[in-house]
Structures are given as C-alpha cells and as structure tokens.
C-alpha cells in the first residue's frame, strides 16, 4: 500500500519506530539511557520516558536493573521470530536438516546474520554420546563461527567496516581471528570456496562447516552449519562426507526459495 503525502501520520508511533531504529543502527551498543535517547530522537526526556514506559509495559523494551538503561525486550525477538516463521525458511529447511543428520550423524544448525552476530534459529541433534551444547536462541559473534563467516563473506567491504572498524575482535581461543585485515583476507577465501570452517575458533574442541542458503538473487538469507567435537570432525570426514551432503541439501533449500544457480 502506498500512503499519500497528505495523510496525517501518528507521531507517537513514528517516535516508537525511531526509537527502535536507534537500537537497530547501533553496532556496538545494546543499552541506552533516557538522556541518550532524548538526544538521538530530538525529544524531551519526559516524552522519551513515557514512550519507554509504554513499550516496557508490553515487553518490547526492558530496563536493566543494574545500569537503569534500556534495551530491547523479549517481544522484539518474538516478533522477529514470527517474521522468520512467516517466511517458512525453518519449515522448509527442517526436513533437509534431518536428512543431513541421518546421513552424517552430526548435529546441524540453521542460523541468520544480524548486526555482526549469528542468531541460531533451530537445530537437529545427532544421535551421539558426545555432543556439543546447543546454541539455539543465542547470539554468537559472526567472525569466529562458520555459520557467520559464510554469510559475512557475501557482505560488501563497507558493510564489514561498519560492523568491525574500530571494534575489538575478542579472542575466544588460540585460533580466533582478531584483526580486521586478517578477517577480510579470510572472508575472500570463504567466498571463493562457498563454505566456511570454524576450526575451534569460538569453542575449543568444536569444529563446524557451514554452507549458505540463498534466495532468488543468490544472496544468503541463512546458512546451515554441521557441528561436532573436533575428535570426530576430522578433515577427512568434513570434506569427504559432510560437505558434499550439506551442500547438496542447502542447494535444494535454495532452489525452493527461487535460486536458479
């Protein structure tokens, strides 16, 4: 629907949306005080406080009791989850994820990239005695995970800079990439291969390989990551067994999203 310029917009709704955009466009900050939001929105602090109180009453904003600053509430996540569900990616991908696990007997995740972090949406667990702790529902830095790196590889240099320029790339293990130039170089290799590895970069003794799920434009909208203990995830198993299987089914999912590659 196209709105005419002479339609009077609801200012309180516009202010709420602008408030959410402050959180969305902030790469390295997830909490704000009333004064900060007042300056960002160009509103009096009393107006901002009432706006926050209204959104907090519905769970879209919450206050950190320790800092007294405000952050996004659980209902924002739920709303985003509903959007993802409406796209049917999870419903579409689930049968193929189950096939991959049945064939390689290692756990698999599906996840999306959001503001430099991976959000793990779903997983199918392998029938193994030794398994990796589930990451579903967690936000994990993209630069040190296979599922994040395969999606970062398709981002422009400007997008990468906006995420990481001036930011500290935290070291989680001895294998974590911690410099932006090294990350950019690595992502070029990932893009050329069209798969990404996590060689114990986020968690010690955990290895992963990820492949992209692409839309009709060939742009990754999500990714699949087969994950397991490093003792089982040998190079031989990854490249002879897991990668061909994951790639095959990721292509099938992509085709159902309109990808013609």
Automatic annotation (TrEMBL):
Keywords noted in UniProt: DNA-binding, Transcription, Transcription regulation
Ranges for domain IclR-ED: 75-259
One Pfam family named in its UniProt record: IclR_C
GO biological process: negative regulation of DNA-templated transcription
GO molecular function: DNA binding; DNA-binding transcription factor activity
Keyword Electron transport carried by entry: no
SMART domains given in the database record: HTH_ICLR
Domain HTH iclR-type: 10-74
Protein name: Transcriptional regulator, IclR family
Taxonomic source organism: Deferribacter desulfuricans (strain DSM 14783 / JCM 11476 / NBRC 101012 / SSM1)
